[in-house]
Each structure stands twice: as structure tokens, then as C-alpha cells.
Task: inverse folding
């Protein structure tokens, strides 16, 4: 879905999430868009960004995007490889991670996330993979960044299941714009170039609050796009 | 400890109704051992794993499992496990009971099991709907009063892992991403380790985990036994296979035919690889 400006909505999401990572931040990274964003940050303004994958690799510096959190290159390039119990006990619970990226199938206006089931737990319409590291990441890091494509199915007034809490969610980066908590409720603070507020409202399953100083995000720069496209997912079709 | 064929280890150490943990965190997943469990048609297993992926999808789809204890069940980087979903959503081929945790909870439960403690402690399971769906209790720290979560220890009947090397006495070494394999073996009453190679002498590796022979019941030579997962230093992850599994596993008949051809109609890991190679060559 290329836009007029010559970049895709996913690229816009990755670029905007990457911009929010400060140099030196220690980031707990999942696969997909978060991995793309964190690796982009490391290749542009934040070379000192420390990527931590829950498989146990601390300070991984992959040359290509891994398909899974346990790809061999993550271990080969890491500062340290630790066991999974150590990762969760010493590093995450120990308070050593600044930023955690989370995705989900559903989000509510408080930033609570569902990655467990669609429909009732005992008889789900869709059984999702489950919480994995999310419940403790959500409360164990200082800042949670959520990356999620905007749709009424994903942005719901009521979650089917609360997998993780939204207490530490600082930003939700979507393909349409940015939401940040204002007085405890996610509020649209920016739209991406070419996106209207009405579009965002229509893709949100609750009556979305709009910031009075709503702004437009900067489109990706040429340098950002080049760095992003140089990152190719290993094994991707 | 004995160095024995994998078929013999599974026959003697895995019993119908057992709680079995085949561990591996994307790396060193014991696929060959999982396939042998399928071949021997073990039944009513409670399968334990932090990240059940393709091999658990195969065990569940072939009707080996009664219950799954887990924290994230998916095809990493690809999507859902269709056999797991079919079992949970439609009871095919049999209903599957779920005991669902978070990663931190599973890790603490394994570590407690390895230490032979009754429970693990963590700062977790706070809020949300998961605590009501899992085995967790709130406890107070006896020294500070801080409220913490207690999870009952995992104590599987059988722990199964894959490693790079064993020596001829059965001492095992694995390296790279070491996951929760050490804890899974030490927490289990019995254990099987499949290995890429058996060497005269283990050469210490950076970050290597060594399991002394006397904590392992059976060591089995199974070169390529992690495929489509990988063995650091031996072969890479077969990412194309994980992508292909999505289509193979989506359809019940296609899944069954695949399992028949590459697992049930093969005798061991060597024949499994030959079968995959023959199929690839025919395309």
C-alpha cells in the first residue's frame, strides 16, 4: 500500500516508532514492526540503543531483520546471551529495561492489550498465541510503546480478554497516527501525512478524544527510508 | 545415563499420560524426539513448553496431547499454529485443556522445579484476566510485606531437549541461545537429550551449558534433530519451512498426509531428512 510520497504505512509506523527511541535506551524488542523500528533507530539517530530479545540475547546487532526472536545471528552479535529464566528475573524484573514494545490483537482506550483470545475464553472464536512476555513487560519496563494497525476490530471499547495492563503505555503508533495517554485515556495527538481525523475516528471502536494541539507527523526522510529498506528480513518471501 | 537409540529412549522413558516438556526457545528444539513420540503413538500427554511451536502443533494435531501448559503458542514470525487452534476452537482431533501462563511465570516455575522448591516467586501476574486463568497465588514477602506472585513448580515426568554435543560418557554441552533447557532437564524426573554429535572430549564453549551425564537418563544421537529449528554452529534455522508450515498445517488432510509421509512412514531423523529432500527434489 504505497502512498503518494513513496512509502508504505508500515514504513511510516516503523520510522515514527524509531524516532521515539533515545540513543542509549535499553529496549525489549519483539518480532515484526518493533524489531524493524528498533533496528532502524540503531542505524540512524540511536547507534547506542541496546536491543534485548526475550530469547536471551542482550545487545544484539543483527545485520538483517531476524524472522524469529531466536535467530542465530542475534546470539552471534550479542553482548551477552543469558538463559530465559535469567532474562525475565534479572533483567526485566530487575528493572534494567527502559522501553518495551508490545503488539496485540486488541487495545482499549486505557492501553490495556489482548493477545489471548477473541470471543469467550472457554469457547474462543479465535485462539491467539497468548501473552508470552507481555504481562510482565507491560509493568516491568518504564515506557511501553505499542505498535498496532488501526481498525475498529483492533481498537475496541471493551477487550475480550485483558492480557496486559496499560499503566506504562506512553505511545501507540498506528498506520494512521499517534495516540498518547492524556488524563488516563488514549488521545489522538498526531496524524500521519495525508490522514484525516475522520479516518482515524472511523477506525477506532470508541469515541476517540482528539488533542486540541493535534499535529501532523513528519514524513520519513530519504535517509530514514534508505536505512529502513536496507534492513531485509531474513527468510521473508 | 546411557547412549541409546532415540526410539528406545522414547519407548522406555515416555509413558502414556505423562507430563512431558520438550523445551527449546526457537533454538535447539527437539523435533526428532517429538517425531518419535508421534511414531510411537503416545497418548494423553500433558505437554509443557514456554513457546509451543511447530513440533507441538504436530503432536497436538496427531492426537498425542490431552493438555497444554504454555505461555505463547504460535509460529514465530509467521502467525498462528493451526493445529493448536483447531484443537482449542473445534476439539479436533481431540479437545485440548489449556493451562496458560506468562513467560516470566513459566520461567520461574521451571527454575523452582530445577531447585526442587515447591513454588517460584516473581513480581508478576498483576491485574488483567490471566491470573484467574492460571495457577498463581498472591503471597506477602515475609521480610518487607511486598505482595508477590507464587507459581507452583514445574516438575515434568520427562524433560526432553536437543544439544550440540555429548561425549562418550554422556556429558552434554549446548551453547548459543540456551533458553530454559537446563531448568527443564533438572526439573524433570526423567530426561532425554538428543545431540548433533558424540565426541571424545567436550570442548568448552563461551556461554555453554553443561549437563553432567548423571543428571541425564538417555543421550541419543540425532544429527539434524532440531530441524526446522537450528543448532548453533551446525546448521541454520529453516525459515522457509516455518513459512511453508502455515499452509501445510491449515488443512487437516494436508497436515495428516504430511505427517504420514515425513514422520510416520520414516523410521528416524535420517529418513525424515531424506523424505524432505526427496519431496523438494520432486518439485
Result:
Amino acid at each position: 500500500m504505497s502512498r503518494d510520497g513513496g512509502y508504505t504505512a508500515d514504513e511510516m509506523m516503523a520510522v515514527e516508532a524509531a524516532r521515539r527511541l533515545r540513543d542509549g535506551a535499553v529496549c525489549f524488542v519483539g518480532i515484526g514492526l518493533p524489531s524493524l523500528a528498533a533496528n532502524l533507530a540503531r542505524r540512524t539517530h540511536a547507534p547506542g540503543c541496546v536491543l534485548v530479545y526475550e530469547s536471551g540475547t542482550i545487545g544484539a546487532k543483527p545485520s538483517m531483520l531476524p524472522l524469529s526472536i531466536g535467530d542465530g545471528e542475534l546470539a552471534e552479535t550479542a553482548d551477552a546471551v543469558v538463559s530465559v529464566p535469567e532474562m525475565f528475573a534479572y533483567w526485566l524484573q530487575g528493572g534494567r529495561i527502559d522501553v518495551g514494545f508490545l503488539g496485540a490483537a486488541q487495545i482499549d482506550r486505557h492501553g490495556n492489550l489482548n493477545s489471548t483470545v477473541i470471543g469467550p475464553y472457554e469457547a474462543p472464536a479465535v485462539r491467539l498465541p497468548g501473552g508470552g512476555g507481555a504481562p510482565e513487560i507491560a509493568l516491568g519496563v518504564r515506557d511501553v510503546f505499542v505498535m498496532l494497525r488501526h481498525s475498529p476490530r483492533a481498537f475496541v471499547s471493551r477487550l475480550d480478554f485483558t492480557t496486559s495492563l496499560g499503566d506504562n503505555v506512553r505511545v501507540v503508533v498506528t498506520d494512521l497516527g499517534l495516540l498518547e495517554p492524556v488524563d488516563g485515556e488514549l488521545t489522538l495527538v498526531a496524524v500521519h501525512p495525508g490522514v484525516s481525523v475522520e479516518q482515524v475516528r472511523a477506525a477506532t471502536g470508541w469515541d476517540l478524544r482528539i488533542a486540541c494541539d493535534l499535529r501532523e507527523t513528519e514524513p520519513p526522510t530519504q535517509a530514514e527510508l534508505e536505512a529502513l529498506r536496507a534492513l531485509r528480513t531474513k527468510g521473508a518471501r | 545415563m546411557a547412549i541409546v537409540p532415540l526410539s528406545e529412549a522414547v519407548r522406555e522413558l515416555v509413558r502414556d499420560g505423562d507430563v512431558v516438556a520438550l523445551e527449546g526457545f526457537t533454538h535447539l528444539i527437539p523435533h526428532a524426539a517429538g517425531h518419535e513420540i508421534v511414531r510411537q503413538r503416545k497418548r494423553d500427554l500433558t505437554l509443557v513448553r514456554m513457546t509451543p511451536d511447530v513440533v507441538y502443533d504436530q503432536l497436538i494435531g496427531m492426537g498425542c496431547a490431552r493438555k497444554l501448559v504454555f505461555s505463547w503458542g504460535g509460529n514465530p514470525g509467521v502467525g498462528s499454529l493451526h493445529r493448536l487452534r483447531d484443537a482449542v476452537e473445534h476439539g479436533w482431533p481431540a479437545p485440548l485443556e489449556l493451562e496458560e501462563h506468562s513467560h516470566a511465570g513459566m520461567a520461574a516455575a521451571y527454575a523452582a522445579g530445577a531447585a526442587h522448591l515447591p513454588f517460584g516467586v516473581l513480581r508478576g501476574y498483576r491485574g488483567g484476566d490471566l491470573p484467574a486463568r492460571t495457577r498463581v497465588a498472591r503471597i506477602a514477602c515475609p521480610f518487607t510485606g511486598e505482595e508477590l506472585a507464587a507459581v507452583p513448580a514445574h516438575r515434568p515426568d520427562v524433560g526432553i531437549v536437543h544439544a550440540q554435543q555429548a561425549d562418550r560418557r554422556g556429558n552434554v554441552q549446548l551453547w548459543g541461545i540456551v533458553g530454559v533447557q537446563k531448568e527443564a532437564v533438572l526439573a524433570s524426573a526423567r530426561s532425554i537429550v538428543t545431540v548433533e554429535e558424540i565426541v571424545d572430549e567436550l570442548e568448552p564453549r563461551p556461554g555453554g551449558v553443561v549437563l553432567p551425564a548423571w543428571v541425564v537418563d538417555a543421550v541419543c544421537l540425532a544429527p539434524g534433530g532440531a530441524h526446522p529449528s537450528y543448532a548453533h554452529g551446525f546448521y541454520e534455522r529453516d525459515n522457509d519451512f516455518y513459512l511453508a508450515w502455515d499452509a501445510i498445517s491449515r488443512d487437516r488432510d494436508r497436515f495428516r498426509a504430511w505427517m504420514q509421509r515425513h514422520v510416520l512412514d520414516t523410521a528416524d531423523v535420517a529418513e525424515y531428512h531424506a523424505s524432505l529432500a526427496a519431496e523438494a527434489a520432486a518439485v
Notes: Residues 50 and 70 of chain B are 5 Å apart (CA to CA). The two ends of chain B are 43 Å apart (CA to CA). Chain B has a mean pLDDT of 96.
